[in-house]
Design a protein that fits this description.
heterodimer; A: MetI-like fold; 77% helix; globular; B: alpha/beta; D-Maltodextrin-Binding Protein, domain 2; 6-stranded mixed beta sheet; 19 helices; 10 strands; disordered N terminus
Chain lengths: 327, 440
């Protein structure tokens, strides 16, 4: 144990110290070049190592994953597009994709709407009330997803009929003499997926609220006032004056939550492990890699996820650049 | 200004990169030391990784520590919270433990096939074979015919739990055959009470308790030889030999009023506490099939565990025909990841009949029939050991643990869950499990 700690300390000192020395040497090297060349080479001297690090830790694994997605389950022989064909002809996987689409449609939108609602309403409270209500809504942000799922168990829990119901929903049903419902198993109209989404939304609304609230507060008062003078009602002011001015923040929140939702794993894993038709793409990936030991399917799933997320990332970067330019 | 920020970022990135590479090289050093020691020099520290629960861990550690101390070996105990995942990660990362205690022979044989494990030598196997419960050696034998794993302790799965006083008060008697068990089920239902508690919820592993049910039934309906063929995939679930086991289970699980809470509640009821309704007044059910571990803290209510011998009445899961004592067992089996002299010494000790004193005191059955039954902490367990385990004519290891992980820890868990929760019928369930067997 002591050796491990010592190792860690050496690694930290050596790593950071080494990095400083490398940059110092590279800088000196660049300075030793003459005239124009110094300016041309210098940026690469500094950016180069970072680019190299990205190549080794991000691009290389991505390329290997792409390669493995065309190989068999032990990654020993190529199988062409067979992994993709298998996945897209498997009803189970298609329903996984469908579930992910549901998550994407429901969660980011609801998170933004609820966050915006809370932000607007809290803005009208007096400062102590605003602070308190915001703190409570922000609180779940600090809870891990596994913890959140455990907390929600007190609401969704099921006990056989006749036993004391420990879950809130079933306790309410029991109060009205109704039979208990196994909520996680209610797959009609993907109701159980919706129940899981609520857990994620519960943890994310705080994030959305904080960003949107600060955006609302930075809306210039005179624009609102000008609207009032022109005779606009509250609704008109909100939709035609406030919302356009906070729109960039809305997009940022939406995309951040969207990317989080596309990768959603922990909520599903700890509650149903994908059973009862609640499976999502990340859990299926985990299942293929660790339970089934199928590198081919697992890699193919990751590639599909990567392809699905890329347009969102591109849009986000463009959006970010536009905002930077507007500043 | 912008330039300076870029520089800082670059330095920070490099710092992170440096850190990461530092960690990596440290990992490699470990792997190298493993490799060089494999010549058989005898390392002073042996790492033993296991996924034992809090009920069995202390006994295992006590026994092994005593041995290690006498031999002058230091044991580094590594507890895996999620065995399957962690052992795979360690092996893939080139950093396996020296000795691993596999709860699943299926995964063990996967790794043996990849050349990660060292088999037991013939002499050790022969010595152990004399005293081991019949069937245990076969469980640790992989496709190449070599024995890679032998158990440290066993649990007995073919146990039917009852609340002894309530069971007797209602005038019920222990069924000796599967037909009698069905009759008893009907009788209990006719008396206006619920016969069965069946519980299969286990978080991310939901469904595995059903596999124990099916295995016990296959062992009885198809016999030990066909059981082995079924495990390797030679006999399909939808074959005339195996299907009756599923149909028998269907009769109980889907029988109207047979199961507490109805069929759908099976997958929603926790496997540890799902039988506790037996001990309520009036009893929520009269029969609960679960392995012996359930008579530990976290399973049956504390008041029951404190007075196990009078409050519970464990019955052997009945045979198809009287006298045909098949028993289903589970257990953690020891395998070695390198052929270092001390690694093998530790592994061979774990599998030997000398091991297990403290384990037995904690309630873990020794796999050796020579074990002193009186060491077990209560009469209930002593009875199960002497009457069920050591009297077995054919003991078979938990089949789902022996199947390829894809089936045994995959479809065999998940498909019955779909079946019981009403998503598909028995035909689809059997077909999906059969189709999931690896073709090679």
């Amino acid at each position: 144990m002591d050796i491990k700690i010592l190792n860690a300390v050496i690694a930290i000192i050596g790593g950071i110290g080494g990095a400083i020395i490398i940059f110092w040497i590279l800088n000196k090297l660049a300075e030793s070049l003459k005239g124009k060349w110094e300016d041309r080479v210098k940026p690469w001297m500094f950016a180069g190592p970072a680019i190299l690090a990205i190549a080794v830790y991000l691009i290389y694994p991505a390329v290997v994953t792409l390669q493995y997605s065309f190989a068999n389950e032990d990654s020993t022989a190529y199988v062409g597009f067979q992994n993709y064909i298998d996945l897209f002809t498997d009803d189970g996987f298609l329903s996984v994709l469908y579930n992910n689409v549901l998550w994407i449609v429901v969660v980011p939108a609801l998170t933004v709407v609820l966050g915006l609602g809370v932000a607007v309403l809290a803005d009208r409270l007096r400062p102590p009330g605003e602070k308190a209500s915001k703190t409570f809504i922000f609180l779940p942000m600090a809870i891990s997803m596994v913890g959140a799922a455990t907390i929600w168990r007190t609401i969704y829990d099921y006990q056989p009929e006749g036993a004391p119901q420990t879950g809130m929903l079933n306790a309410i049903l029991a109060f009205f003499d109704q039979a208990p419902v196994f909520w996680y198993g209610e797959s009609t109209l993907h109701f159980n997926s919706l129940l899981l989404m609520i857990i994620l939304i519960w943890t994310q609304v705080g994030f959305s609220m904080v960003l949107l609230s600060s955006a609302i507060k930075s809306v210039p008062e005179d624009t609102v006032e000008a609207g009032r003078i022109d005779g606009a009602g509250e609704r008109r002011i909100f939709f035609n004056i406030i919302v356009p001015q906070i729109w960039p923040t809305v997009i940022t929140v939406f995309i951040t939550v969207l990317i989080g939702v596309m990768k959603v794993f922990d909520v599903v894993y700890v509650t149903t492990n994908g059973a009862y038709n609640t499976d999502v793409i990340s859990r299926r990936f985990y299942d293929e890699l660790y339970t089934q030991g199928n590198n081919g399917y697992a890699s193919a799933i990751v590639v599909i996820l990567m392809l699905a997320i890329t347009p969102v990332l591109v849009y986000q970067i463009r959006h970010f650049r536009k905002e930077e330019a507007a500043r | 200004m912008i330039n300076r920020r870029a520089t800082t970022t670059a330095i920070a990135a490099l710092g992170v990169a440096g850190l990461a590479s530092g960690c990596l090289s440290a990992g490699n050093e470990n792997a190298n030391s493993d490799g060089s020691a494999a010549s058989g020099a005898g390392k002073s520290t042996i790492s033993v990784m296991y996924g034992l629960g809090p009920d069995t861990e202390p006994g295992f550690k006590a026994d092994l520590s005593k041995f290690a101390e006498a031999e002058g070996i230091t044991i580094e105990f590594i507890k895996a919270a999620s065995w399957d995942t962690e052992i795979r990660t360690k092996v893939q990362g080139g950093n396996p433990p020296d000795v691993g205690l596999f709860p699943q022979p299926g995964l063990m044989c996967d790794l043996a096939k990849q050349g990660e494990l060292i088999p037991y030598d013939a002499a050790t196997v022969a010595t152990n074979k004399e005293t081991l419960v019949p069937g245990v050696i076969e469980a640790g034998t992989c496709a190449d015919g070599e024995v890679y794993g032998l158990p440290s302790a066993l649990s007995v799965k073919s146990v039917l739990w009852t609340d002894a006083p309530a069971f007797a008060a209602a005038g019920y008697t222990a069924p000796t055959t599967l037909d009698e068990l069905l009759t008893l089920t009907d009788t209990i239902k006719a008396d206006g009470t619920t016969p069965w508690c069946i519980a299969a919820e286990s978080g991310a592993a939901t469904g595995w308790p059903i596999t124990d049910w099916i295995e016990d039934l296959v062992l009885r309906f198809a016999g030990a030889e066909n059981y082995d063929k079924w495990v390797t995939g030679e006999l399909k679930n939808d074959s005339p030999e195996i299907r009756p086991a599923w149909e028998y289970f269907e009769k109980i699980a889907f029988g109207d009023g047979y199961v507490r809470g109805g069929t759908k509640s099976i997958v929603a009821t926790n496997f540890q506490t799902g039988g506790n309704a037996m001990f309520e007044q009036p009893p929520g059910c009269y029969l609960f099939k679960q392995a012996t571990f359930v008579a530990n803290k976290g399973g049956f209510p504390d008041t029951v565990i404190a007075d196990l011998d009078t409050k519970t009445g464990p019955l052997p899961f009945p045979a198809k025909t009287v006298g045909d004592n098949a028993v289903l067992i589970g257990g953690d089996i020891a395998a070695a990841f390198n052929n270092d002299a001390n690694t093998l010494k530790v592994r061979n000790f774990i599998a030997s009949k000398e091991n297990g004193t403290e384990q037995q005191k904690a309630g873990g059955f020794s796999p050796h029939t020579t074990a002193d039954v009186s060491l077990l902490p209560n009469k209930t367990l002593q009875t199960i050991a002497s009457e069920v385990l050591y009297k077995a004519t054919a003991a078979r290891f938990d089949g789902s643990d022996l199947m390829p992980a894809k089936v045994g820890a995959g479809t065999f868990w998940t498909e019955p869950v779909k079946w019981l929760s009403g998503q598909q019928d028995l035909d689809a369930t059997l077909k999906n499990i059969d189709d999931s067997y690896p073709t090679s």
